[in-house]
Amino acid sequence: MTPEEFKKIGETHQKKREAFKYNINVCTAAACVSLQSEKVKDELASQVKEQGKKESCRISGTGCLGLCASGPLVTINNGQALYGGVKPGDAADIVKSIDKKPVKRLEIPADMPFFARQTKIALEHCGNTDPEVLGDYLALEGYEALYNCLTTMQPVEVIDTMVKSGLRGRGGGGYPVGLKWSTVHKAVGTKKFVICNADEGDPGAFMDRSMLESDPHSIVEGMAIAGYAVGATHGYVYIRGEYPLAIKRLKAAIKQAERQGFLGKNICGTPFSFDVEIRLGAGAFVCGEETALIASIEGKRGTPRPRPPYPAQYGLWGFPTLINNVETFANISPIVRKGADYYASIGTERSKGTKVFALAGSINNTGLIEVPMGITLREIVFEIGGGIIGGKKFKAVQTGGPSGGCIPDEYLDMKVDYESLAQVGSIMGSGGMIVMDETSCMVDVAKYFMDFCRSESCGKCAPCRVGTAQMYNLLNLISEGKATMHDMELLEELCDVVRNTSLCGLGQTAANPVLSTIRFFRDEYLAHIKDKKCPAGVCVIEHKEEAVL
Amino acid sequence: MSSSVKIKTLTIDERQVGAREDQTILDVARENGIKIPTLCSLKGLSAYGGCRMCIVEIAGTPKLLPSCMTTVEEGMVVTTNSDRIKKYRRSLLELYFSERNHVCSVCATNGYCELQSMAQEVEMTHVHFPYMYPQLDIDATHERFILDHNRCISCTRCVRVCDEIEGAHTLDIKDRGIDIRVITDLDHPWGESETCTQCGKCVHVCPTGALIERGKSVGEMSKRKQLLPYLTKMREAHE
Amino acid sequence: MNEAASKDKRRKLVDATMRRYGHSQYALIETLHSVQEVYGFLDDENLKYVSDALRVPLSKIYGVATFYHFFTLKPQGDHTAVLCTGTACYIKGVPAILSAIRNNFSVEAGETREDGKLSLLTARCIGSCGLSPAIVLDGEIAGQITPEIVVDRIGRMIQNDA
Fold this sequence. Notes:
heterotrimer; A: alpha/beta; Rossmann fold; Ubiquitin-like (UB roll); five-stranded mixed β-sheet; four-stranded mixed β-sheet; 22 helices; B: Ubiquitin-like (UB roll); 2 domains; three-stranded antiparallel β-sheet; 6 helices; 10 strands
């Protein structure tokens, strides 16, 4: 297809859309769907019919609007009115008032900080396109970046753009994307692969899911551009089997892209060929680790192997392989379209651009946000997030999931980027942010994460296999008020051994939640051990009378 | 050896050594008489990288790397025996002993056990992590061999020898984390296995008393250490 | 449809999956997904069938099937409840919800009730953190749950059959 042709498809779609005075969009990403947004959509459609407004109103499903806490969400003309908590019974009123004043009881101010403070790049299409319609994507310059790369840029120029943009891997490690691409590009191999890691495993992170549900074509396009840049002809998306809606939409997007020639042989009439296949994950956190993920795609137990060699040299079936995660790929086409300089102008010195965060826990505005790097935690939690539920006292924000740490209030004014998070013993991770209030016990939180690591450890290397089990047992003793200070010493020693001797990232970072809670909330540990008390009142401590002998 | 293989020079424990570019640090160290402790590694089987005993320090790399799977590089400076590494090896070994039930005095391989001799080698005097003492099964259904999960350190030598040398792949690992166990076929009793060739290689590569011959009592089960090197050598000669 | 015919039909679906990947050993996990989808769980008979068709050793298949928590080797109950135990859900009261389900329906996490009516599973994170705590009841996500709501909904879910 020529650019004129696909622009035309886009324009036709745009015109079709503009022919309606009112475009009513209903969020059909997983969170809203679970709150019956499909029914809301159906009811809106039948109300439009009933009230004779078929000429002026068009109902579509769109991707995630972000504010999951207030779902199901409905927007009219992309923000002219925004409604939250919509029930099927509200459809009549929404349609009735479409050309009048908005329905007061459902209205969410579209200029609230949650929306106004965001900078959307990776999420640029989320909430304003129908993820199941290719034309919608084309109407918003979809696949133009791919076309331009293929027709006007050499692979090294594409890589150069990534280097200049300063984009770093959004899956957790923060490895520079340009450098990774360049390594795979230079690697010698008769075949090369591109893998999209969509095995979103951090409990508390749901951005990959949301992006795949809301804008699957942007991931496909990003992968194809990467394939061109590194010289790969085949791509895999390794996606969690637990995400049925995301799988369905991604499958549909791949089919559509194949049909229109954005995937397959001789893409857009150029010599470049690239296809994308889906591989289902099956519930193993460790498969987020590159070498374990590769083992899993090869149909094996998802156990990691020591690196080096890195997958960039020796990856899938021994061939050079590029692995990036969903959010990274979502950033590729915007960077090509808007330019590396634009992207690099956002963010901090060493962490460029924006980052998507999943806000959850004891926070009013739970949902998905995209903000410039360098924003402070306080802005995220108290302005965008709307503060703590029920006006309770903030205690900590957990970032980076089971590999991350808990950050206390004294660091609320810290700028969020890779380096500063590492400095306080946490990590960026994939961008989960779980806010905890005074009713959370930090020993209990550490125990929760160790339980997670213990059950997600693959068991291959002894320090992770035995060490996480030992640490869990010790944390359990502490939480039950049965531990001594000696146990605390053992726990800290184990943290050191497991961190330094484990085979892969899972074990090497498993101690982080313990270390960071010991660092910032040592008094809570001591209260459990010495006073046999849980200050937050979470842990159940049985008080037995001392036996008198 | 083809002449295209490059030779690299590196330093191991302050000694300059030469190596082929495809060699691992462990191989080169052994060739030069430098001893690095190992549990899962066994000459003749593929490398596994799981036991972590062979970790070494490489100058300029913050992480400790397994010498069995790290190939040499020009100018590499390797330390195999610093106090830091020695301490970690001791802790690792203590974790092994705490994981299941390694009671040497009642074990058939007492005196021949690699875990036991490793404890002496790394100067482990006691286990200061709590013993977990799981109650694990003993599979004594096979007419010639016994599999005692209580003594298993999950090194997977048996799994690899069964797959790579015997070609039966009767053995594998099930579950994950602390729950991993060696299994036969679909986790059915060993005695009922339709794929086991009864060759006994697994028993002789097992470093501990997890796999033993039936009828051996305490201290009687020595392992035929030369079996695997012999087999690999003879096979190479055939090729 | 008699039992043999229905079994045959289900086999065909599994065969189709294996064929799609050219009976490659690499397709093991996709094939297991397919078996679980059509049979509900992975039984010995099917594992043996897949082993033979893909030429993957039995013990290796068993190792893979037990490594991934998405796979189950036991038949599931008529209804399933998958409670999310992700961080956001956990700090918002999953322990209390879990014990409410256990006490009211006498079923343990990871198990199926004796009468086969209900399986209670836990998931590490279902990605619905914005709606925590969340549970998946017969495939439908329910968010912002409390012990009372869950007990009521599961109760109705089980009763609907009667």
